[in-house]
Amino acid sequence: xxxxxxxxxxxxxxxxxxxxxxxxxxxxxxxxxxxxxxxxxxxxxxxxxxxxxxxxxxxxxxxxxxxxxxxxxxxxxxxxxxxxxxxxxxxxxxxxxxxxxxxxxxxxxxxxxxxxxxxxxxxxxxxxxxxxxxxxxxxxxxxxxxxxxxxxxxxxxxxxxxxxxxxxxxxxxxxxxxxxxxxxxxxxxxxxxxxxxxxxxxxxxxxxx
Length: 209
Known about the structure:
By secondary structure, this protein is α+β, with helices and mostly antiparallel strands. It is 39% helix and 13% strand.
């Protein structure tokens, strides 16, 4: 098994620290070849039973993007209505989507009925297919960040509405809506922390049994 140099290990740790959830994008286009280099990370990702259940939908048409943005705005308004007092004001001040600016937008689905993998590892825990998709997304995210691109994961959405609007098979489950592009600025501290919405734990919640 190959080992990696201390310098590589340090750079990898730096990459993971600089992998931030980006909400503020420049509108500059992303070169197609560069994007495909990042998307190649999906082909290197592990998956339960080697099922490779990820399905990538590029959201490019004005109609599809308008529908996705309207979906977010509706879901965000509903989420805001559930906040009260100072927390409502704090929530309203957050920028939770870069969908209006990001040049690349990807809807990442899990094919819940894929025959690939022959059901190995998913009979007792079918959610493992979705976890496989999440793992692949993380590799893509790191690949993008290593090349200077930012990624933002939008989760304030109605997934069923998104599936209908994008006209994808009903057996596909929306896992992530990703905005991709050149960030306005970069940093190692999550924006939600700088805005005092929440802070990271001081230590890992590890327990022993």
